């Protein structure tokens, strides 16, 4: 099988440069983003008009096929599907009483919308570049020098199963609601690989899980949603144990 990976990434303004903690300037994000943009693969970039030119400056020296999708956070699929309910939940007194840690996934609804939309971006990217596997990579995923990732994706492990990177080799969750509100996580959301044939299934199940969690009165990061899906036993995924942001080398 001729493996043809397509990279998918995105950057949107959710006011992170004005947060009181976990703050980051968008200029800083785009500087870090050069590592992701240097990867030698066709790349689909979802972003806002105001970021396009600066991102292209970083991508152009490494371009092997690039498509921008210019939109707004309000137009994202998960925004239309769950923002109203998510915002109501996260701003409710009942939810705020459950919060143990002042982290973005507990306090910033737009942060969660972007994280939850990753699977939908993979789905949309299928109509832009025809690949065998679609690799989500957070915009500021990698932090080492560009030379570490300025190469094609290793494809030796890309087969019929989606690949997720995890802090642990196994996943075990006793109480889903407690897990959502905790800082314990197994699967890492910074990068994951989905074969084209599995994207529709993952998108459907992931979206349903997000909706179910919101309706239950509990929500957490995108990583917690993946954890719960894996723990359900419905998805046949390959887990690769690795450290934060070491996904590129773990692919090999």
Outline the fold blueprint.
Layout: E1 5-11, H1 26-37, E2 43-47, H2 49-59, E3 66-70, H3 77-90, H4 93-98, H5 104-107, H6 109-116, H7 118-125, E4 133-137, E5 163-166, H8 176-181, E6 187-195, H9 199-216, H10 222-232, E7 238-241, H11 247-250
Parallel strand pairs: 1-2, 1-4, 2-3, 5-7
Antiparallel strand pairs: 4-6, 5-6
Helix pairs in contact: 1-2, 3-6, 3-9, 7-9, 9-10
Task: Write a short abstract of this structure.
40% of the residues lie in helices and 15% in strands. By secondary structure, the protein is an alpha/beta fold.
The description of the largest β-sheet is: 7 strands, mixed
Strand content: 15-25%
Q: In whole angstroms, how far apart are the ends?
A: 17 Å
Q: Give me the count of strands.
A: 7
Can you tell me the residue ranges where pLDDT is under 50 for at least 5 consecutive residues?
none
What structural class should be given to the helix and strand makeup? alpha/beta
Report the oligomer: single chain
Based on Cα principal axes, name the global outline. globular
The topology string of helices and strands comes to EHEHEHHHHHEEHEHHEH
- The portion of residues assigned to helices is 40-55%
How many helices? Answer: 11
Radius of gyration, taken over Cα atoms and rounded to an integer in Å: 17 Å
> Strands across the major sheet, in which order?
3-2-1-4-6-5-7
Whole-number average pLDDT?
Answer: 96
């Amino acid at each position: 099988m001729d493996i043809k990976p397509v990279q998918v990434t995105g950057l949107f303004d959710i006011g992170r440069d004005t947060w009181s903690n976990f703050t980051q300037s968008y200029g800083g994000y785009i500087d870090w983003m050069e590592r992701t943009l240097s990867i030698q693969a066709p790349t689909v970039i979802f972003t806002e008009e105001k970021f396009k030119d600066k991102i292209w400056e970083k991508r152009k020296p490494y371009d092997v096929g690039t498509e921008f999708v210019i939109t707004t956070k309000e137009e994202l699929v998960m925004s239309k599907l769950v923002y109203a309910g998510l915002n109501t939940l996260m701003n409710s007194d009942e939810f705020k009483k459950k919060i143990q840690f002042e982290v973005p996934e507990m306090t910033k609804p737009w942060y969660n919308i972007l994280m939850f939309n990753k699977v939908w971006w993979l789905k949309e990217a299928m109509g832009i570049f025809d690949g065998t596997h679609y690799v989500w990579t957070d915009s500021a995923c990698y932090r080492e020098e560009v030379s570490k990732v300025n190469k094609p994706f290793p494809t030796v492990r890309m087969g019929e199963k989606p690949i997720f990177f995890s802090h642990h080799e196994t996943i075990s969750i006793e109480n889903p609601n407690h897990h959502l509100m905790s800082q314990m996580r197994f699967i890492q959301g910074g990068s994951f690989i989905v074969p084209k044939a599995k994207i529709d299934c993952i998108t459907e199940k992931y979206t349903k899980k997000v909706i179910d969690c919101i309706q239950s009165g509990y929500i957490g990061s995108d990583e917690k949603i993946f954890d719960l899906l894996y723990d359900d036993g419905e998805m046949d995924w390959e887990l690769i144990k690795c450290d934060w942001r070491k996904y590129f080398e773990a692919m090999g």
